[in-house]
Amino acid sequence: MAKPRPGMGRGLGAILSVSNEGSPRAEEELRAVVNEIFGLANRTRWGVDMIERSAREIPALAALLHNEWRAPMMGRLEEFLRVRMDRGEFRHVDDAWIAARFVAETVNWFARHRHHDRYGRRLDDAPVTATVADLIVGAFALGSEAPA
């Protein structure tokens, strides 16, 4: 088994580095990815908030944030979803990049931005993480086709 990609833990980086043989079910992989991104976003929220604010005035910091952190993560997430859709392990949607953006933005709001929301900050991490993962996994699970 290959090592996880730099900057990624057991979830997205490791899953994209392993062969297809013996890998967990696609839904379990997606849950691990969502939990990993959620945990990282939650743990780094104060620093990332500061970097985002500073990046508006410092082009080099904006480039680092977007080109070195976000774009690679979005590329790996898009690849993860597209490959599993192509294999028939997830329900197919028209655009894997939009699907990846949906996952990233949903996780990001609940992991980071809810702490700035009057109602969201009252929510405990454990049930928020579990519910977000359940909803995202359910959105891609086979048999969850959207009505026409």
Please supply descriptive tags for the structure shown above.
148 residues, mainly alpha, Tetracycline Repressor, domain 2
Short description:
This protein has 148 residues and is mainly alpha-helical.
What would you say this structure looks like, in words?
It is a single chain. The protein has 148 residues and is mainly alpha-helical. The protein has a single domain, classed as Tetracycline Repressor, domain 2 (Orthogonal Bundle). Helix 2 packs across helix 5, helix 3 crosses helix 4 and helix 4 crosses helix 5. The protein starts with 11 loop residues before the first helix and ends in an 8-residue tail after the last helix. The N terminus is likely disordered.
Looking at the overall shape, the CATH architecture is Orthogonal Bundle
* CATH topology (level 3) name: Tetracycline Repressor, domain 2
Strand tally: 0
> Would you identify the regions where 5 or more consecutive residues have pLDDT less than 50?
1-7
Following the backbone from N to C, one meets helices and strands in this order, namely HHHHHH
* Terminal CA distance: 41 Å
- Rounded to an integer in angstroms, the radius of gyration calculated over CA atoms is 16 Å
Q: Fraction of residues in helices?
A: 55-70%
Largest sheet: none
Binned strand content? under 5%
| Dominant shape | globular
Number of domains in the coordinates? 1
Structural class: mainly alpha
Classified by CATH, the class is Mainly Alpha
Arithmetic mean of pLDDT: 82
Helical element count?
Answer: 6
